[in-house]
Amino acid sequence: MVMPFLSSTYIPATVRILLALTLSALVAPMLPPLPQVDAISLHALFLAIEQLLVGFMLALFLTIMLYIMTLLGEMLSMQMGLAMAVMNDPSSGGSHPILGQWFLLYGTLLFLALDGHLVAIGVLVDSFLLWPVGMGIFDLPLMGLIGRISWMFAAAFMLALPSILAMLMVNITFGVLSRSAPSLNVFALGFPMSMLMGLLCVFFSFSGLPSRYSDLCLDALSAMHQFIGG
């Protein structure tokens, strides 16, 4: 329900329900003995809520990982002057810069190409062995999950830093031109040049982005596995 790509509204609810039932049927024989509780008691309700919260927190690691690409696109859009070029996304119910949507799609495809979804499902299965049902959620390293927010901003900034510096040099150059030759229409010339430089930076960034993003995917999956005691 929460894991990126599988939680998209573009995937029908019937497919997601069938996937959940199939995973449950395959995983149930491998699980250790579960606590014997009454199915209609409050204890059973608390156990269900506990497992839902654990699943949501595990999926949050992957959601933060994918939003690195969205944040990268937003940073580049701000430097290029494309912050107002937004597109409504029906899958998330919000509006995002077009460049951010492009990077998000690219990051999702990279995650699937690296079989990250299979590793994430494997971590989900291991969570029942490493963190058995009934262990609670307050003993989990919750501060480590909160720290992934700062990790997201730091990773997006490091990916965008070369392009930001290149476009900053262009802006500084046109600032010097506007002071040395005030008669030049710098605004009419600077905006197209900034956008052209931004597109070139985006083009060249794709040469090294897959290897860098694969390292981030590995880091997120490792943190996801360590979160449950792996």
UniProtKB/TrEMBL annotation:
The keyword Metal-binding does not apply. Keywords: Bacterial flagellum, Cell membrane, Cell projection, Cilium, Flagellum, Membrane, Transmembrane, Transmembrane helix. The chain crosses the membrane at residues 49-72, 103-131, 151-174, 186-206. Its main location: membrane. InterPro entries: FliR (IPR006303), T3SS_IM_R (IPR002010). It is a multi-pass membrane protein. It is found in: Cell membrane; Bacterial flagellum basal body. The keyword ATP-binding does not apply. Signal peptide: none annotated. PANTHER family: FLAGELLAR BIOSYNTHETIC PROTEIN FLIR. Belongs to the FliR/MopE/SpaR family. Role in flagellar biosynthesis. This is Flagellar biosynthetic protein FliR. It comes from Shewanella sairae.
